[in-house]
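Our consortium's second objective concerns turning raw sequence data into structural hypotheses that experimental partners can test. To show how far this objective has progressed, the report includes one record in full. It was chosen at random from the queue rather than selected for favorable results. The single chain below, 322 residues long, was entered without modification.
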Amino acid sequence: GDFSAGVLDVLNYGPSLEQLTQINVPNAHIAGYLGQGVRVCMMDTGYRKDHIVFASAYAEGRVIAEYDFVFNDGNTQDSVGQDAAGQHSHGTLTWSTLGGELDGTHYGPAFESEFLLAKTEYVPTETQVEEDNWVAGMEWADLNGADVISSSLAYSDWYVTANYNGDFCVTTKAADSAAVLGIVVCNSMGNSGPGASTLAAPADADSIISVGAVDASGTIAGFSSRGPTADGRMKPELCARGVSTSCATSSTTTSFGSASGTSLSCPLIGGAVAVVLSAHPTWTPMQVREALMMTASQFCSPNNTYGWGIIDVMAAINYDGC
């Protein structure tokens, strides 16, 4: 939709209001920053594209491209006879959290962004080919002009803690490459907390935003994976709501609910990144990262539980250190 600041005062966020207010998104929307002009690539399991929460993105021509890297075709929604039932469930949660739109029910932070849909994850099995799919998806995102990648995926089954040093894992190296190419990568920390160094690839990458999960009161979720990386860097960078986060669900084309995990906090930050880029289209990935970190709730005393803390999107937009 074409929103002016006056109209934005009456956006009805429905159940998504709380998770957006926690990171100061509604004030950014009132200021006119909606993710417009920013291209976001989702990397996930697939997407229920016919869900009502995505209808305006399709109606306005903002879903630019999609690709299924698992089956090498152009459809990222479940195909009968090809996909395990519910394969697209997880991606529907994450994409709606980042960029969904249904007035009165749900808004993602970046509901006016353009979208690239990459299906890189095969739900029935956990194998190393999924990391190769992730790399292929990142390269495809770059070729298709992505500004942001939101990835609620983590790889640990074939790694040990010592591997998370920022330079070893396949997707970690690819995520840092994306940053060099000008793409802000947001990635879930993983759900293996609360122990130390429980993160998974590519969250150990040094040039990305790795995301932890907090609850409605701003307290870290027990499951949220913690740093440090194997080479002693603090992780996560930032946090958002990942406990009972409002989102669309894939059971029907009109179903909504909530879900928990760093999979849900990551797209809130990914959407927030797109909102910041709406305000500052020339900022580099490292400038966006710095602005969000230096204005977050714990920037004076970061740690391996919260990182630099819960973001404040308007404060990041107004950050003058860049």
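The partners drew two points from this record. The chain has a mean pLDDT of 96. The first helix runs from residue 5 to 8. Both points have been shared with the crystallography group to help prioritize constructs.
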